[in-house]
TrEMBL record:
Keywords: Transferase. CDD domains: Cis_IPPS. One of its GO terms (biological process) is polyprenol biosynthetic process. Its EC number is 2.5.1.-. Belongs to the UPP synthase family. NCBIfam families: uppS (TIGR00055). It holds the Pfam family Prenyltransf. InterPro entries: UPP_synth-like, UPP_synth-like_CS, UPP_synth-like_sf. This is Alkyl transferase. It catalyses: n isopentenyl diphosphate + (2E,6E)-farnesyl diphosphate = a di-trans,poly-cis-polyprenyl diphosphate + n diphosphate. One of its GO terms (cellular component) is endoplasmic reticulum. PROSITE patterns: UPP_SYNTHASE (PS01066). One of its GO terms (molecular function) is ditrans,polycis-polyprenyl diphosphate synthase [(2E,6E)-farnesyl diphosphate specific] activity. The lineage of its organism: Eukaryota, Metazoa, Spiralia, Lophotrochozoa, Annelida.
Length: 344
């Protein structure tokens, strides 16, 4: 395999590039951009390259797009890195992708690119570089050989998330992900979401299982189930819907990526209005079916509605806290199992 480029591109931008960025930055800028990394194999075939080289070119394009986003001040990026469907590809190709990642980050360390971080002028780009370096467990020391601590990550304020079916990944990769996610979960200046072992169908099914289990455990009632509740159980529950979706190959297919989120983006205001009306109607219907003993005046009906709404809100809050705690425990359990295996 040929020599590979690095995460950091220390290149001088042209006057035209800087001018275009300035013009664009003067107008409305999306807060959240999602990327579908696609077309690597077609690019390789068209240019008579090996598949590995095609994937490498795809990585280079991702680095370039991140640079554009950072120039524009975009604070959240979601990347479709690996679909569950990709597991169906040949073992040779999957292994090639894994080896590409290993070589990429090994070169990162050999070139001592981490020293560039301290000089890099863009805070967000610096943060992304640090998080990606730590994610694969290779960049653990600063330029002076001092162990990299959570204080450095806190300083830059980037939250790193992996969205997907983590249990499908190899155990060692789960441990690496758990380290990065746990270390940065409290940061809130910028967000880098990597969809790995992900499809939208799997995400929605996982959310439905969470809701069904909540009903089984008695945390919520069937009447509490709504689009909004299901949305809060998605992998992306901590993110706003993307403002812009880019597919690098130029295709217009969504490929099972953020289907729920893209639909909500288009109809967000309408869904919000309809959902609030549905909640109110359900409450009124419950009052009509099970009226309390005694005279039903306006005050008692309103009191019943308010009580019902408050109880529902409390149930939903407790349920969502239960879901969030369980997701946090997933990473804690992964790290604990690693400690047990290592005998520490």
């Amino acid at each position: 395999m040929k020599e590979m480029s690095t995460w950091i591109r220390d290149t001088n931008k042209s006057w035209l590039h800087r001018s275009l960025i300035s013009v664009l930055a003067a107008g409305p800028i999306p807060k959240h951009v999602a990327f579908i990394m696609d077309g690597n194999r077609r690019f390789a075939k068209k240019n008579s390259l090996e598949q590995a080289q095609g994937h490498l070119k795809g990585f280079d394009k991702l680095a370039e797009m991140l640079d554009w986003c950072l120039d524009l001040g975009i604070t959240e990026v979601t990347v479709y890195a690996f679909s569950i469907e990709n597991f169906k590809r040949s073992k040779e190709e999957v292994d090639c992708l894994m080896e590409l990642a290993r070589q990429k980050f090994s070169r990162l360390m050999h070139e001592n690119d981490y020293s560039l971080v301290m000089l890099w002028p863009d805070l967000y780009y610096t943060s992304i570089f640090i998080i990606l370096s730590i994610q694969i467990g290779l960049c653990t020391k600063d330029e002076h050989g001092v162990g990299l601590s959570g204080e450095v990550i806190d300083k830059h304020g980037v939250c790193f998330r992996v969205l997907g079916n983590i249990n499908m990944l190899p155990v060692d990769l789960q441990e690496i992900i758990a380290d990065a996610v746990t270390m940065t979960c409290h940061n809130n200046r910028a967000f880098l979401n990597v969809c790995f072992a992900y499809t939208s169908q799997d995400e929605i099914c996982a959310a439905m299982r969470e809701v069904a289990e909540g009903v089984q455990l008695g945390l919520i009632k069937e009447s509490d189930i709504s689009e909004r509740l299901l949305e809060k159980c998605l992998y992306t529950y901590q993110s706003c819907a993307p403002d812009l979706l880019v597919r690098t190959s130029g295709e217009v297919r969504l490929s099972d990526f953020l289907l729920w989120q893209e639909a909500k983006l288009k109809h967000e205001a309408e869904l919000d209005r309809i959902q609030k009306e549905d909640d109110y109607r359900n409450a009124v219907e419950s009052c009509r079916i099970t009226p309390p003993a005694g005279t039903q005046n306006g005050f008692s009906v309103q009191h019943k509605v308010n009580t019902f709404a408050a109880q529902r809100q409390e149930r939903i809050k407790n349920f969502l806290q239960h879901v969030e705690r369980r997701r946090a425990r997933l990473f804690q359990d992964i790290l604990q199992n690693r400690c047990i295996k290592c005998g520490t």
